[in-house]
From TrEMBL:
Residues 100-357 form the Choice-of-anchor I domain. PROSITE patterns: TAT. The keyword Repressor does not apply. It comes from the Bacteria. Residues 531-799 form the Phytase-like domain. Residues 33-52 are annotated as: Disordered. InterPro entries: Choice_anch_I, Mesenchyme-surface_protein, Phytase-like_dom, Quino_amine_DH_bsu, TAT_signal, WD40/YVTN_repeat-like_dom_sf. This is Esterase-like activity of phytase family protein. Residues 1-33 form the signal peptide. Transmembrane segments: none annotated.
Length: 821
């Protein structure tokens, strides 16, 4: 056997990791310090190992529960109907969450007395408060009452709305207050004496500006202009409450001097988006997203005290092209921040979520000095990098606002002031310590379901409640309310991975500069992370007992193989190297669903299982250690002809005295085997003779209409035993089968042309482990291998966020000798 390790020959082709992960996501020991003892990496590598991940357990936020809100809809509502949770608030005791469901024209109620087990309390249909077409846009709780902001507009040109006051206990309407326009958000002063409502009177994106009938659709101005309503809440009896408007334009419709002087986009047509009250309860900050501005209003007097522009931001080190690649080297010219949500960090500092709308968006969030309007700090490209580092890069948004930061909330929990920043398109919330408002410190990233809209800190109980608005029963993506707790012990059960369970290190030679610092213009350069997504295969490294290999499937181009350092100190697994697959020296595009790292004694490199769009395009592909394709082996014609669109889903290999053999799992049955379903096939390929032998694997029966069951992976346990992943196509609460079975190979091969049926035995029910993340149960359990350290590892395919939450779950399932007996 050769004593030269394959890794030393792969080095030149790697984009290897640096010594640290940006943003403090994972603190890594430099390679020079890590190279000792049994974990010493092969010569020539800059691999690093994780030392700690994020905050200590007692200070971390743990995901406690994910509640699909369709389960809280009225009994007569079809579970497949769209039902969402957007903006939420909580009762003063922190136990009852109230959320808006614009799709269902209702507001919902959840009991979070036990935050690990939210309980639906039903909903209130707005038809009972007014009209069946009324739409709730925001909600706030004051004492014993729920204030529901309702859009009643018949058209963009004739906007209207009201504030419904609902008794929290009885869910009956106490009174309504006319708002004089189409409302968006509402905020309550800390003492409960005032409510401030942003009256947006939003533009129609399908018509041109009023003064340019031949112009672009959606341009401003479009009358009527928006304004702000301040609702006085004296005492506890809503009968004495009243509203007073704060105009943001002159009586003749022209721009107020304060707005015109601030250099806003179209000051004669302000559209208030979001409102926040400072801790002192004296000043309301209102974001004018389309106008790229912020207005400060004295709550007591209703006077506009200050107006300033949110300014522009240029970005480097970001992905700007929708091409299925993850290329963090692009540049964006300066664009308006166009803030959506806004929050006060303290009485001197404002934070904005810079989502953008029609001309801008800078993929991050900013801190402003409220007195001067100057930028005190800006996240630059770091949230884009964070998304790439944890596998949540959304390539479908790279040409349009990227991670799309929409939500922000600030609150003190457990003695620390935090900012919670939500990414609408990459499905995460980033947590920052903002004890020093001029220098926010990244703390942690939290995975959510799709489209996190409402961020609700519950400081009296050390909780964060996130409402996600995306809902599609057809795609298995449902709107949900996710509850996180700071330091809650119930979330730290043994073996439960905390998100992220796999991250990437830095990609050598790539960097991106972003704006940071006290004065808002100090340039800080950090290395960009290795971009990854859609991991659908796993293989143990034949030489390094703590290294695995995985691969991206067709969701990413070019095809990449990734080196993974397995976790050892409770942190995540780390992708510390990337190998791009090439064909004739050019980047290749394969749909890799299976992967086996070959031992050095047979030449090293890899065998890949590439699933084709048709049966004939399925192939085994041999790749050198440098990533170059050296051989392609098609499936036998009779097999390929019966595949349909479900093909190769796993590859594993063995080398013994008889030579090199590959085992190939086909996801579902052949059409020639009495149709898809019934049994799937596992093939053995003799590399030396190019002969195939076929075995049959009986599949479990689907448990729901429209479901199917198939194989997702195969790995070798010993010379006589294989392990496979068998799973259904369901996710979330519907998921029923995510399991590892073992099969013993027969002592004699079947005759040529025959299929030998295999007896299977359940080895690992993985579904409880997936549910133990307390998130959305993932559909695609697709990677499985036995590491050189004797542990069994598995990984889910996140589908590159396409009709999926995007979360990747990497699992250490335990020791082989205990699982495969």
């Amino acid at each position: 056997m050769s004593t030269q390790k394959p890794h030393s020959r792969r080095t030149a082709a790697f984009i290897a990791s640096g010594a640290t992960l940006a943003l403090g996501l994972t603190a890594l020991v430099p390679a020079s310090a890590a190279a000792h003892g049994p974990d010493r990496p092969s010569a020539g590598h800059s691999f690093s190992r994780p030392a700690t991940f994020g905050p200590s357990q007692g200070k971390a936020f743990h995901r406690l529960a994910t509640y699909p809100v369709f389960q809280n809809a009225p009994a007569d509502v079809d579970p497949a109907d769209e039902t969402v949770a957007e903006i939420s608030d909580v009762s003063e005791d922190g136990r009852t969450v109230v959320y808006t469901d614009a799709a269902g024209r209702r507001i919902g109620f959840l009991d979070i007395t036990d935050p690990a087990h939210p309980r639906g309390l039903g909903s209130l249909d707005l038809a009972e408060l007014g009209d069946a077409e009324d739409e709730p846009t925001s909600v706030a709780v004051v004492g014993d009452h729920v204030l529901v902001v309702v859009n009643t507009s018949e058209s963009y040109a004739n906007p209207s709305g009201r504030l419904d006051v609902v008794d929290l206990a009885t869910r009956t309407k106490v009174r309504s207050i006319d708002l004089g326009g189409q409302p968006d958000s509402i905020a309550i002063t800390p003492d409960g004496a005032y409510a401030v409502v942003a009256i947006e009177n939003e533009r129609d994106e399908d018509v041109p500006a009023d003064n340019a009938p031949g112009g672009d659709e959606g341009d401003l101005p479009q009358a009527p202009a928006g304004f702000v309503q301040i609702v006085d809440l004296p005492g506890t009896d809503p009968a004495g409450w009243s509203a007073r408007p704060v105009p943001l334009t002159a009586t003749d419709g022209s721009a107020l001097p304060a707005l015109a002087g601030a250099g806003l986009d179209t000051p004669e047509d302000p559209e208030p988006e979001y409102v926040a009250i400072n801790p002192a309860g004296t000043t309301a900050a209102v974001s004018l997203q389309e106008n790229n501005g912020i207005v400060l209003i004295d709550v007591a007097s209703g006077e506009v005290t200050s107006v300033f522009s949110a300014g522009e931001q240029a970005l480097t080190g970001v992905d700007t092209i929708e091409d299925d690649a993850i290329d963090l080297t692009g540049t964006l010219d300066a664009a308006p921040r166009e803030p959506d949500a806004i929050a006060w960090i303290d009485d001197q500092h404002l934070a904005t979520a810079n989502e953008g709308d029609w001309k801008g968006g800078t993929r991050g969030w900013s801190v402003f000095d409220a007195a001067t309007g100057e930028v005190a700090w800006d996240a630059g490209n770091t949230l884009e990098h964070l998304a790439a580092r944890v596998g949540l890069h959304n390539d479908g948004r790279t040409e349009n606002k990227g991670v799309e930061i929409e939500g922000i909330a600030v609150s003190e929990l457990g003695g620390t002031r935090y900012a919670f920043v939500g990414s609408e398109r990459s499905n995460f919330v980033a947590v920052y310590d903002v004890s020093d408002a001029d220098a926010p410190q990244f703390v942690q990233v939290l995975a959510t379901t799709n489209g996190p809209e409402g961020l609700l800190p519950v400081p009296q109980r050390n909780l964060l409640v996130v409402s996600s608005e995306e809902d599609s029963a057809e795609d298995g993506v449902r709107s949900a309310v996710t509850v996180f707790g700071k330091g809650w012990r119930s979330a730290r059960s043994a073996g439960t991975p905390r998100f992220p369970s796999i991250v990437s290190g830095d990609a050598a030679g790539t960097a991106g500069a972003y704006t940071s610092g006290l004065d808002g213009d100090r340039q800080v350069t950090r290395d960009a992370p290795i971009g990854w997504t859609a991991l659908g295969a796993l293989s143990a490294d034949p030489e390094d007992r703590r290294r695995l290999w995985t691969a991206s499937d067709a969701a990413k181009e070019p095809t990449s193989l990734y080196s993974v350092r397995t976790p050892r100190w409770g942190g995540p697994a780390v992708i510390d190297g990337e190998l791009v697959v090439t064909d004739g020296g050019e980047p290749a595009a394969l749909d890799v669903e299976g992967l086996w790292a070959r031992p050095a004694r047979v030449g090293g490199g890899f065998w890949l299982g590439s699933e084709g769009r048709t049966g004939a395009e399925n192939a085994l592909v041999r790749v050198s250690e440098s990533g170059e394709i050296e051989e392609s082996v098609s499936l036998p014609e009779e097999i390929a002809a019966g595949l349909g669109k479900w093909g190769i889903e796993g590859v594993a290999g063995t080398v013994d005295r008889r030579g090199e053999h590959l085992f190939v799992a086909l996801q579902r049955g052949l059409t020639s085997d009495d149709g898809p379903g019934g049994y799937a096939r596992i093939g053995r390929y003799d590399v030396a003779t190019a002969e195939w032998t076929w075995f049959g694997y009986e599949l479990e029966r689907p448990t729901a209409d429209g479901d199917w069951v198939g194989l997702s992976e195969v790995t070798v346990v010993d010379r006589n035993t294989l392990a496979v992943i068998e799973r259904d196509k369901l996710n979330g609460p519907d998921a029923a089968l995510k399991a590892v079975y073992t099969v013993d190979l027969p002592h004699r091969d079947p005759r040529p042309g025959e299929v030998a049926m295999l007896d299977k035995e359940l080895a690992i029910d993985v579904l409880p482990r997936l549910r133990a993340t307390n998130g959305w149960t993932q559909e695609k359990l697709e990677g499985l291998t036995i590491g050189g350290d004797g542990h069994v590892y598995a990984v889910t395919d996140n589908d590159a966020l396409d009709d999926a939450t995007g979360e990747t779950v990497f699992l250490d399932l335990g020791k082989t000798r205990r699982l495969f007996r």
